[in-house]
Amino acid sequence: MDSQVAKQDQPFADIFDEDEAEKSFLLSKPTCIIVLGKPGSGKKTLARKLAQIWKCILIEALEVIQTNIDEETEYGLKCQELLFKGQNISEELVTKMILKKIESSEASHFGYVLSGYPSLSEEYMTISQQIEKIKNLKLKPDLLINIKCSDYDLCQRISGQRQHPDSGQVYQRNQWDPNIIEKHKKQKDQHEENEEEDEEQEEEKTAEDPPMKADFFHQLVQRPEDFLENADERVGMYKDIMLHPLE
């Protein structure tokens, strides 16, 4: 009787023990994501949030350059040398750093979130060649996220950006424009009159507010690429040379 019960229980037993299950998970392909969209559509912001949530490696041109410089790699030393001379870092060098990061053991283990590639610049590789590179990656993307935004709204958003020269931080119009900040503040005050909020929520909101002061506004500058006519030109270029190959 006992043997019959054992035979009945056997089909429902887990064929993997804990060690085998962990080994299978570690050998499985990690999640890889590519974020696409028009210039200034928020690709990097979304990519950073996804990388944090999915515990993936963020791969983006500026991040990759900074990492190589900090770690003093061969590519990083070349970047430093070019920057000390006041020269731009070539598209070829940036592309090589990005591809190397994708092929790294770190990305193979955690997966990656890639932003800003393919690049609008065809200095080193054409759009089609960049797309072929992605198709032939060992770690192929599992998800392609395309951020859509109307040209008018996007150009208005880009032209409203301002940068702090010392920190390099970029602020949106609702963070630096006194009129919009005052309007939001009045709306917030009205909302708080109707609803009672506990102290913890108040502390969280205070922590999230950007440290904007009156003298801070005058330090912000508009980058040339954020001028309305230049933003419109970049968006048009994306639609002309990038959109069709991507689709």
UniProtKB/TrEMBL annotation:
Region described as Disordered: spans on this chain: 184-217
Compositionally biased tracts (Basic and acidic residues): 207-216
Compositional bias segments (type: Acidic residues): 192-206
Gene3D superfamilies in the cross-refs: P-loop containing nucleotide triphosphate hydrolases
Signal peptide start-end: none
One record GO biological process: nucleobase-containing compound metabolic process
Pfam families linked to this entry: ADK (PF00406)
InterPro entries assigned: Adenylat/UMP-CMP_kin (IPR000850), P-loop_NTPase (IPR027417)
Alphabetical UniProt keywords: Kinase, Nucleotide-binding, Transferase
Domain of life (superkingdom): Eukaryota
Molecular function GO terms recorded: ATP binding; nucleobase-containing compound kinase activity
PANTHER family, sorted: NUCLEOTIDE KINASE
Protein name as annotated: KAD9 kinase
Organism: Ceuthmochares aereus
Upper classification of the organism: Eukaryota, Metazoa, Chordata, Craniata, Vertebrata
